[in-house]
Structure to design on (232 residues):
């Protein structure tokens, strides 16, 4: 079966532009997560969805970041007015349920964002 | 502050020998710990986990040890194989400060190289 897919795999943009990153979770997974990994750092939690709702947005770095999920499936992470410090690999994960960490999170390959 | 620390950025071992990857954490409310493996250009893949009620969990060549009093866990791979060469991330979750039972807090990773 298909795993988590993300698009694009690479994105180069100019400072100040808006970008959209897409995540297709594993079919049937109700929980979806976004993380990012900056150079030399561990993965940093951004936001999670249970169904289409995002109860915890505390990890979003600023109000330039937003995310939505539609139909309990595809999710889009949008970064407005990108800054150079937004350059990172953005990773999406999904799990069957949101039942604690015991529900394994399966990660996609990530989108490498470079802001010039 | 970094709540999950992997102090060794890299480790090199010979094929057939034991690899020991270490991880320390500071948040005493973490109660579930995971190891993920990551190959270049791929997302992290779940390897093994341990609950805080245990001190050891074994799965084939992989064993995770947890020392709660020292807030330390380690991943043992024996025997190591060249295909094990990857970045290994330690992650934790729990209902502590800034935590949740679904939000994973990751270390920065350790690059393991297994030489033939």
């Amino acid at each position: 079966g298909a795993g988590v897919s993300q698009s694009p795999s690479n994105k180069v943009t100019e400072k100040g532009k808006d970008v959209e990153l897409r995540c297709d979770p594993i079919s049937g997974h109700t929980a979806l997560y976004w993380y990012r990994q900056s150079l030399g750092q561990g993965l940093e939690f951004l936001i999670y969805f249970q169904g289409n709702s995002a109860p915890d947005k505390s990890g979003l770095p600023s109000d330039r970041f937003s995310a939505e999920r539609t139909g309990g499936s595809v999710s889009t992470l949008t970064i407005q007015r990108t800054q150079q410090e937004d350059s990172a690999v953005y990773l999406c994960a999904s799990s069957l349920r949101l039942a604690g960490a015991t529900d394994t999170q399966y990660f996609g390959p990530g989108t490498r964002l470079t802001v010039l | 502050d970094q709540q999950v620390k992997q102090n060794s950025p890299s480790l090199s071992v010979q094929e057939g020998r034991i690899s020991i990857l270490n991880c320390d954490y500071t948040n005493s409310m973490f109660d579930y710990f995971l190891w993920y493996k990551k190959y270049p250009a791929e997302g992290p893949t779940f390897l093994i986990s341990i609950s805080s009620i245990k001190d050891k969990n074994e799965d084939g060549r992989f064993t995770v040890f947890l020392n709660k009093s020292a807030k330390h866990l380690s991943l043992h791979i024996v025997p190591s194989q060249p295909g094990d060469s990857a970045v290994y991330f330690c992650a934790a979750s729990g209902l502590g400060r800034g935590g949740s039972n679904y939000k994973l807090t990751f270390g920065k990773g350790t690059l393991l190289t297994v030489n033939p």
User: Anything to note?
Assistant: Chain B touches chain A at residues 2, 4, 6, 32, 34, 36, 41-46, 49, 51, 89, 91, 93, 98, 100-109 (CB under 8 Å). Chain B has a mean pLDDT of 92. Chain B has one domain: 4-98+107-115.
